Amino acid sequence: MRWEAVCERLSLKPEVIYPAIVNDLKELSFGSDFCLEGLPGGASNRGYLRLRFNSGKSPGSMILMVLKELDPRQGIEEVVEDGFEVRELPFLSAQRHFGKYGVAVPAIHHYNSQAGLIYLEDLGDVLLRDMLNSCEESGRVLWLEKAVDELIRLQLVAGRAEDPDFIGFRMRFNSRLIRWELEHFREWALDKRLGPVLKPEESALLTECFEKIKSELLASPYILSHRDYHIDNLMVSNDRIRVIDFQDAFMAPYAYDLASLLYDRDTSLLLGKGLIEHIINYYFQRLRENGFKPLDFDGFRRVFDLCVLHRAFKIVGRFYFLAIVKNKPEYLDFQPAEYIVLGEYLDRFAEFKPVKDMLKNYLPELTPKQEG
Question: Is the CB of residue 240 less than 8 Å from the CB of residue 128?
């Protein structure tokens, strides 16, 4: 992939970025004998390049995060504690805190704050998804347990360390954000895609469901959370799970990251129900072993199920948004799996059966196809 294409997607000029890279590498004593390649992924406000050195320098490569927006408050104003001044990029704050307490995040070699360039340790190209696809069942268990162990380190080692400068302790999964994410489903899976199809009483039923999910999640125990902890944001390097894309870390319901790990995109189809149940129990056990006193297992399981349901509503809506607005139709490939999750987890709550019955009138994807 052309590295210039990453810059162009961010509305940045390659002819401005390249000289900044050259100057940075001279300051770091790496010289100018290097090449760049664009990497897939990123978001609307950032992209990634791989920087390879041709002169035998160590390390032989770095990952370069290219930022479109330098304002550290961008996109987080609604979840930051009132009166807290955001003085640095959340990514930098989280990387420093997590690294200090042993979470396996990539090292930062250099940050050019004027050009918005962050030079990172290159962790390679092997995602946890790749490992799970290539392993037998015993290997999948091993790697998922490693992912849970790293999550426990993030939540209960880094999460217990006092650090007034760490922005993640000053942000919270609040009522406004929970509701906005749920409403993403109504807006994009229904209203924007199909038209305002719901009758007033049906709309009220969906609103009641959303309010129930929101109120229970707000009342559940909170813990430091990655907030996007899934198999495409975990890498395998030197036989260890490495954690990336942690810039959105903050306080959230304690089962949220586990729901993300097991049910993001098509993960549940890859793992299967037996392995998912094993990891749910393993996580609960590791919480208790590390001194966190969660609810009893039934209470924990209800919080977990609500987190899965919340994420399923959000993701179905979000993937339609990405396809319709951001011209990323590839996300629609994950919708069949997400609809399965949404249907199954609505079924886990007797009080939400009327919601599923109502939605099936407009979303045939919620009705499993009969075999034969």
Answer: no
The tokens of 25 are what?
A: 């590498």
In this predicted structure, what is the pLDDT of residue 158?
Answer: 97
Quick one: DSSP state of residue 290?
Answer: T
The angle formed by the CA atoms of residues 75, 77 and 79, to the nearest 5 degrees, is 100
Tell me which of 79-88, 115-124, 228-237 is least confident. 79-88
Report the SS3 class of residue 242: strand
Question: Would you state the structure tokens that stand for residue 303, as one six-digit string?
Answer: 């919080």
- Residue carrying structure tokens 């940045």: 12
Please calculate the CA angle 187-193-197 and round it to the nearest 5 degrees.
75
Q: Tell me the per-residue pLDDT of 246-255, one tens digit each, with 9 for 90 and over.
A: 999 999 999 9
CA separation (Å) from 172 to 18, 168, 336, 348?
37, 8, 31, 27
The model carries a pTM of 0.93
Could you tell me if 118 and 46 are in contact, meaning their C-beta atoms sit under 8 angstroms apart? Answer: no
pLDDT(77) > 80: no
- The pLDDT, as a whole number, for residue 74 is 65
What the block records as the tokens of 173 is 């999964």
Question: Is residue 363 within 8 Å of 320, Cβ to Cβ?
Answer: no
- With vertex at residue 41, the alpha carbon angle to CA 39 and CA 46, rounded to the nearest 5 degrees, is 90
Residue 155's nearest CA partner among 271, 294, 276 is 294
**Is the Cα torsion angle 160, 162, 165, 171 positive or negative in sign?**
positive
Residues 6+ apart with CB under 8 A from 35: 51, 52, 54
Tell me the sheet residues that pair with 118: 65, 111
